[in-house]
Amino acid sequence: MQPTATVLVYSDDSNTREQVRLATGRRPASDVPQVEFIECATPAAVIKELDRGGIDVCVLDGEAVPMGGMGVCRQIKDEIFNCPPVLVLIGRPQDAWLATWSRADAAVTLPVDPVEFAASLAALLRRRAALSA
């Protein structure tokens, strides 16, 4: 197992980014690596970090302003070669169809439920590890 996994967190709201960090802890599950975070508050910062490489999973806030995480997800799925898996944070369970439209790999609702979030993030980290093995 690799020593750490890098998770990019995009939200214009520092409280949402903190919810993600707290729900993840050091690692979301015992069979995945410890997590390091890269936090972004703008869509341009997300693109810059993805272009730099080394991101294992993206967590995007669907409620972010000025561009929501679903729009960012659709853009990066089109523009980033070997785009990492994306977990979108949605405002309501009924918005799951929008997450599907954006090509997100998973979606969880806000506010972040630590158990649901950690399980979804761990699943994406396992998938990423399996693809790169």
What does this structure look like?
The chain is α/β, with parallel strands linked by helices and 133 residues long. It is built from five helices and five strands. It has a five-stranded parallel beta sheet with strand order 2-1-3-4-5, with helices on both faces. Helix 1 (14-24) links the parallel strand 1 and strand 2 (34-40). The chain starts with a strand and ends with a helix. Residues 6-125 form the Response regulatory domain. It comes from Streptomyces sp. R21.
List the defining traits of the structure above:
5 helices; 5 strands; five-stranded parallel β-sheet; Response regulatory domain-containing protein; alpha/beta; phosphoprotein; 21% strand; 133 residues
Largest sheet: 5 strands, parallel
Structural class: alpha/beta
Outline: globular
Spatial order of the strands forming the largest sheet: 2-1-3-4-5
Ranges where pLDDT stays below 50 over 5 or more residues in a row are: none
- Count the helices. How many? 5
What radius of gyration results from the CA coordinates?
13 Å
Write the layout of secondary structure elements.
Elements: E1 4-10, H1 14-24, E2 34-40, H2 43-52, E3 57-61, H3 69-79, E4 86-90, H4 96-101, E5 106-109, H5 114-132
Parallel strand pairs: 1-2, 1-3, 3-4, 4-5
